[in-house]
Write a structure and sequence with these properties.
Blueprint: H1 8-21, H2 28-40, H3 44-52, H4 54-57, H5 63-75, H6 79-91, H7 99-111, H8 115-124, H9 134-146, H10 150-163, H11 170-182, H12 186-198, H13 205-217, H14 221-233, H15 240-252, H16 256-268, H17 275-287, H18 291-303, H19 311-323, H20 327-339, H21 346-358, H22 362-374, H23 381-393, H24 397-408, H25 420-424
Helix pairs in contact: 2-3, 2-5, 3-5, 5-6, 5-7, 6-7, 7-8, 7-9, 8-9, 9-10, 9-11, 10-11, 11-12, 11-13, 12-13, 13-14, 13-15, 14-15, 15-16, 15-17, 17-18, 17-19, 18-19, 19-20, 19-21, 20-21, 21-22, 21-23, 23-24
PPR repeats: 98-132, 133-167, 169-203, 204-238, 239-273, 310-344, 345-379
Keywords: Repeat, Transit peptide
Protein name: Pentacotripeptide-repeat region of PRORP domain-containing protein
Length: 431
């Protein structure tokens, strides 16, 4: 009842009274419930202490309870604690681990890049009558590839193919393919892909997307399109990631017409672009100084109710407008952002501050700087140094002193009385 009322501290005190003072020991089912309830409430250490006492209470708690708690530790970023508990539990005979137990521990150490520990844990499985399953091998191969040991990952893949006991699946192959793609080794990636096809394993959308992305980043859009065509021929439906990746590849190569053709092709599959797709195309138009097209896509994004505007999408548009001297239009973008609940970041403010300075609208630049500080967005050295340079050119040394004090943290913008210079300048933009 105390646990159900979220009074876990009281529940644990009562539990200690029950076991230490009255000598009443729990059974396995109750101990598992109490540990699980504590873990769900965030009392991970208390839950671990309870399960560690199982042998003392004469309980044989199922492996599920230990595995779930380990997973909770790993989910909170406490991988080393989870592994230490796991090894302590099995050494002390608290429970008999199963394959899932090892998979949880191996996944945790792989997440932090400790593949050597992962390999050691795989070796220890036999001590407890466990054999690596497909999940174990997929975790191990994925971990090796993430730390750029793709060759070792492929060795595991080949061993699985050779032994024939636990055959690799699409996840195993895709992990190795992804590792090679990230290293720019596209020939090796395609060799594994062809091997996959030859072994009768059907690639999925993730497999094709990884290959398309690899070729796109390598600037080889011909091969990227060839992979896409294979995807269609093998009746694997493309998704928004497929089209976003193709668009990104074309944009990297400066082929915006092909990117736009792919954007249109998306609608034929009734696939809607997501925030990432919009950010790719908007940034590319901004890089080519085509602000009208960038604004058109930003307006289309703002009309979508299922996508919240993000500062990193709007910043390139604000930047290209400011560089073109269109600061009033840039201000409107900011107002639309804030109207939709999108908070400007330090890059937004820096762009607007410098943009207004370049246009000679120093008072508005000062207002933006003050707003930046007041909203808790700390200016970095680039913002401060650029702004100071503009203020010095404008002959405003008193403002420079004020900005430097704010940047050093010795004062805030709200504590300072505006300088006579900034008071005398008409601020034409409401922010």
């Amino acid at each position: 009842m105390l646990c159900q009322s979220s009074r876990h501290t009281d529940a644990l005190k009562l539990f200690d009274q029950m076991t230490d003072q009255s000598g009443h020991f729990p059974n396995a089912r109750f101990l598992s419930f109490l540990a699980g309830s504590c873990a769900n409430a965030g009392f991970l250490d208390a839950a671990a202490a309870l399960l560690s006492k199982a042998p003392q209470f004469g309980c044989c708690v199922e492996a599920y309870a230990y595995n779930k708690l380990m997973n909770s530790f790993i989910g909170c970023g406490r991988v080393q604690d989870a592994v230490a508990l796991f090894e302590g539990w099995i050494q002390g005979g608290a429970y008999s681990p199963d394959v899932w137990s090892f998979n949880v521990a191996i996944k945790g150490v792989c997440q932090v890049g400790d593949v050597q520990k992962a390999l050691e844990l795989v070796e220890r499985m036999a001590e407890f009558g466990c054999s690596p399953d497909t999940v174990t091998n997929n975790i191990l191969v994925g971990g090796l590839c993430r730390v750029k040991e793709v060759s070792r990952g492929r060795e595991v893949l080949r061993r699985l193919q050779r032994d024939g006991v636990c055959m690799p699946n699409v996840v195993t192959y895709t992990s190795v393919i992804s590792g090679y793609c990230k290293s720019g080794r596209m020939e090796d990636a395609m060799a594994v892909y062809n091997d996959m096809i030859g072994c009768g394993t059907t690639p999925n959308a993730v497999t094709y997307n990884v290959l398309i992305n690899g070729y796109g980043k390598a600037g080889n859009m011909g091969s990227a399109v060839a992979v896409y065509q294979q995807m269609i021929l093998r009746r694997c439906p493309p998704d928004v990631v497929t089209f976003s990746t193709l668009i990104d590849g074309y944009c990297r190569c400066g082929q915006l017409d092909d990117a736009m053709r792919t954007w249109t092709e998306m609608s034929q599959y009734q696939i809607q672009p997501n925030a990432h797709t919009f950010s790719i195309i908007i940034l590319s138009f901004c890089k080519q100084n085509r602000s009208a097209e960038a604004l058109r896509f930003l307006k289309e994004l703002n009309m979508r109710t299922d996508i919240a505007p993000r500062a990193f999408i709007c910043n390139p548009v604000i930047d290209v407008l400011c560089k073109g001297g269109k600061v009033d239009e840039a201000n409107l973008i900011l107002m639309e952002m804030e109207g939709k609940g999108c908070r400007p970041d330090k890059y937004t403010y820096t762009i607007l501050i410098i943009g207004h300075c370049m246009k000679g609208r120093i008072s508005e630049a000062i207002t933006f700087f003050n707003k930046m500080v007041d909203t808790g967005c700390s200016p970095d050295s680039i913002t401060v140094n650029s702004f100071i340079g503009c203020l010095l050119k404008a002959g405003m040394p008193s403002e420079v002193d004020r900005i430097m004090k704010i940047a050093s943290g010795s004062t805030s913008s709200s504590q300072e009385v505006p300088s006579p210079v900034s008071q005398s300048i008409d601020i034409s933009v409401a922010v």
